[in-house]
């Protein structure tokens, strides 16, 4: 559907859990976050019902996120429901990759279209420092396994950190001999991200060109998200950038978010708009849900204000692991 700014909203990120098996320094505190009790999290049935309504509003691309989505039991069943029952065109997930070797075959059978695997370094010590866990090998095994499914779209998402530019260069090198795209996500000043220094796209491109040669901008299907891509000669995959700060893309934003506890968020930075869980559990019918969702999307904020001190997210949605990225 179109919002009041005439942006076509066709994509939703659904957080299925606020729990995670890593503790990335820019996302989650070492001690973890106070997790929501299970009954406060939307059930799969509730997500299915809401997705029927999103689908009716022409929002038919879903990304499952978290926390770590693969830590929630039965996620493949949710994928199947969204594809088969709700008629979603594309269901993908973003994961830290640790549980992929265990779960991916079932997810593919359920119809998952792609996986984005988050990885910031190929160095074991550095991985331990960033994620506070020693699980690099499991993630690499997950990537290798994902590439054995020819129909699966595989992307690596890297949040480059200022002190680790060489790690980002090595991650880009994954796209040289493998059929995957690598995307660099600019650090966003949300929660712990405010305390971490990222790398700006222009600086990283300069370093990448020194390492791999000229990068040529290449097309990306319109309406397919905020990344823009470059081709590097001799590379199988492309290198993308999602640069919310240095290349603000709010005027083309196509997405909304559903938090694990059922709030609809129409902008990453702003307070949640509608408590859909409350509506679901107090007996709202589909028409009332659709009306509330439509109104919230119509009023989607024009843009974020990351570089200004306004429009901060609510304290209880402080960490990126709780919003879903
Ligand atoms: N656990 C899953 C994962 O890591 O892919 C899904 C949730 S995670 C919050 C989704 C994405 O958000 C990851 O790629 C992560 O690197 C990114 N992220 C977390 N904090 C961020 C921040 N402050 N700025 C930019 N990206 C961030
Ligand atoms: Fe967990 Fe993903 Fe956040 Fe890392 S970025 S702590 S893997 S939710």
What can you see in these coordinates?
The protein is globular and about 60 Å long. It starts with 10 loop residues before the first strand and ends with a helix. It has helices at 44-56, 75-85, 100-110, 124-131, 136-146, 165-172, 174-177, 201-212, 276-281, 286-298, 320-323, and strands at residues 11-15, 61-65, 90-95, 114-118, 153-158, 181-185, 215-218, 228-232, 239-242, 255-258, 263-265, 274-275. By secondary structure, the protein is an alpha/beta fold. Helix 1 (44-56) crosses helix 10 (286-298). Strand 11 and strand 12 form a beta hairpin. The chain has eleven helices and twelve strands. The model is unreliable at 310-316 (pLDDT under 50). Bound molecules: S-adenosylmethionine and iron/sulfur cluster. Iron/sulfur cluster is lined by residues 20, 22-24, 27-28, 66-68, 96, 118, 320-321.
Concise structural overview:
By secondary structure, this protein is an alpha/beta fold. It has 11 helices and 12 strands. Strands 7-8-9-6-5-4-3-2-1-10-11-12 form a 12-stranded mixed beta sheet.
List keywords for this structure.
globular; 325 residues; 11 helices; binds S-adenosylmethionine; binds iron/sulfur cluster; alpha/beta; twelve-stranded mixed beta sheet; 31% helix
Estimate the mean pLDDT confidence.
91
Q: How does the overall form come out from the CA principal axes?
A: globular
Rg is 19 Å
Beta strand count? 12
* Widest β-sheet, arrangement of strands: 7-8-9-6-5-4-3-2-1-10-11-12
Distance between the termini: 22 Å
User: Helix segment count?
Assistant: 11
Helix content: 25-40%
Could you give the order of the helices and strands? EHEHEHEHHEHHEHEEEEEEHHH
| Low-pLDDT residue intervals, each spanning 5 or more residues | 310-316
Broad structural category = alpha/beta
Give the cofactors and ligands: S-adenosylmethionine, iron/sulfur cluster
- What's the main sheet like? 12 strands, mixed
